[in-house]
Inverse folding.
């Protein structure tokens, strides 16, 4: 049971970890000083949440594990993040689109995780929710600005939402582990979040004058450890220091 | 983004009584200016309240006029309330 809980916590943390890493790639490369800092602030918020999750997972595991072994020393198939968060920083519209599509889910998820029967998870969720509420505000504002902006920004924002939409369904497809965790009141039944998610996302897309994509086929796999071609590159960069200088600390 | 106007940012710290000038930033409108100010100037818990003002709305004194504007006050020490004894209960003077 404890082992399953550790895996479940890692799955939650991995979403924030990989998205945080993607945003971290933008440090010094944002389109303006202000958006650069805003995006890396979000990245640091996510890493802060990841640390809480991994520290707790390491404590439950009870062996030589630490937050670093969870973050840096697992193999690709052991990461359980959704495919959405590993998608590349194609352009600013993709960055905002990816952020928005994840933020809305993240907020709904944390709202429910606050009622977890596990006190630590509930506390992490409560603390993270304030940060994520700001993330939703930031990314929603930008979707609307770009969508309802110039012809070019509208086209790019629409293209990003259209392309990323195929990764949204995975957010709500329950794995066996997620079912077990929600049945025992430790975790969240993500399939119940879909309706609220679509309502919130549609409201923003409507304001942004962006058509809701009509997609029949969705891509999934990250939650089972089957990732897109991007994942290996992300891990190579992210794990480099710990792999090259084992046990190094700052 | 190159054409975004400049905004001046004022932050009130937790125990501060007034907003103080923190710096400036670029934003396309007031809402974005407020969010940018939050991200750029309050990330180390610097404040609990933010004002943003379009820089173009600020009328500044001309440094060339500093002579007649400010120098006459330089030798008028009697204008400082340092010649009075203030009761301890009086705060924020």
């Amino acid at each position: 049971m404890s082992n399953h809980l550790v895996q479940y916590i890692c799955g939650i943390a991995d979403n924030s970890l990989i998205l945080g890493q993607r945003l971290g790639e933008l440090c010094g490369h944002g389109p303006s000083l202000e958006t650069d800092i805003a995006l890396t602030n979000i990245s640091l918020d996510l890493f802060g949440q990841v640390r809480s999750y991994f520290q707790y997972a390491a404590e439950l595991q009870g062996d030589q594990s630490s937050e670093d072994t969870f973050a840096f020393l697992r193999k690709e198939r052991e990461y359980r993040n959704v495919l959405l968060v590993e998608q590349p920083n194609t352009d600013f519209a993709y960055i905002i689109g990816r952020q928005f599509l994840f933020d809305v889910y993240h907020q709904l998820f944390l709202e429910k995780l606050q009622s977890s029967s596990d006190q630590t998870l509930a506390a992490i969720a409560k603390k993270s929710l304030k940060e994520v509420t700001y993330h939703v505000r930031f990314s929603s504002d930008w979707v609307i600005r770009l969508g309802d902006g110039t012809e070019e920004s509208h086209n790019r924002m629409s293209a990003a939402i259209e392309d990323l939409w195929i990764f949204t369904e995975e957010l709500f497809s329950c794995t066996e582990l997620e079912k077990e965790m929600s049945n025992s009141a430790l975790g969240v039944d993500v399939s119940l979040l879909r309706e609220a998610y679509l309502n919130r996302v549609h409201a923003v897309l409507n304001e942004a004058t962006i058509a809701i994509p009509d997609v029949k086929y969705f891509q999934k796999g990250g939650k089972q450890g089957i990732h897109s071609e991007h994942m290996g590159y992300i891990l190579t960069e992210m794990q480099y220091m710990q792999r090259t200088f084992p046990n190094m600390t700052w | 983004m190159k054409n975004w106007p400049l905004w001046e940012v004022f932050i009130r710290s937790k125990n501060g009584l007034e907003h103080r000038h923190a710096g400036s930033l670029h934003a396309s409108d007031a809402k974005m200016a407020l969010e940018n100010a939050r991200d750029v100037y309050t990330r180390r818990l610097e404040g609990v309240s933010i004002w943003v003002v379009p820089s173009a709305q600020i009328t500044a004194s001309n440094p060339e006029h500093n002579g007649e504007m400010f120098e006459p006050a330089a030798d008028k020490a009697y204008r400082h309330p340092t010649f009075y004894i203030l009761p301890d209960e009086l705060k924020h003077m």
Summary: The first helix of chain B runs from residue 30 to 41. The two ends of chain B are 43 Å apart (CA to CA). The longest strand of chain B covers residues 6-12.
